[in-house]
Amino acid sequence: MTLRRVSAGLLALAVVATLATRIALNMEANGTTLPEALWGIYRYFTIWTNTAVALAAGLIALRGRLDGRISGGLVMAIAAVGLVYHALLAHLSDYAGLELLLDEMLHTVVPIWFVLHWLAFEPKERARPAALPAWLAFPAVYCFYALGRAAFDGVYPYFFLDIPEQGLVQVLINIAGLIAAFAVLGGIILLVARMLSVRQLAQHG
C-alpha cells in the first residue's frame, strides 16, 4: 500500500472516530437518541465538510484515486473550515478536555492534514478554473440549507446566518461575502494546483 493510501486511510479513520465520539457525547449530554443527535450535529458546515473529507479519504485509501476536481474542492472547503473558525468563531468556545480535543480535530488537525495530503499526494491536473463554480455551490447550498432548517426549528448554526439577530438583508450580504471569500480561496488553490502541475510535468519531461 502506498504512502498516499495510508495517509488517506488514517485520515478517514481519524475523522470517523472524531465524529462518532462527538455524536456519542451529544447523546449522553443531552439525553437524545441517535437520530436526534445526528439531526443536531449536521446543522454545521464543519460537520458536513469533515464527513465529505472522510468519504473522499476513504475512497482514496480503498481505490487509490480521486478526481482532482473533487479533491481540489474539498481542500477549499476544509481549509475554509479552519480559517473561518479561527478567525471568527474560536473565541466563542470555552471547551476543555475531550471536548477541546474533538474541537481541535474538526477545526485544525483535519484541515491541516487534508491540505498537506493534497499538496503531497493528490493529482492536480483536473483542478482547473472551470471547476470553481461547482466548488462554490457547496457552501452556497449549505447556507440555504441551514436557513431552511432554522426556519423549521429556530436554531441558527452561525451568527452570520442569524436572521432574527441580523435581518434578512444583512444575512444575504453575509452569504455573498462568504461566497466571495470562498472564491478567493478557491482561486489560490487553483493557482497552487497549476504551479505544482507545471513543476511535476517539468520534472517528468
UniProtKB/TrEMBL annotation:
Stretches that traverse the bilayer: 44-62, 74-93, 105-121, 133-152, 172-193
InterPro entries cross-referenced by the UniProt entry: Pr6Pr-like (IPR049713)
UniProt key word Membrane: yes
UniProt keyword terms in alphabetical order: Membrane, Transmembrane, Transmembrane helix
Keyword flag rRNA-binding: no
Listed NCBIfam families: Pr6Pr
Protein name in UniProt: Integral membrane protein
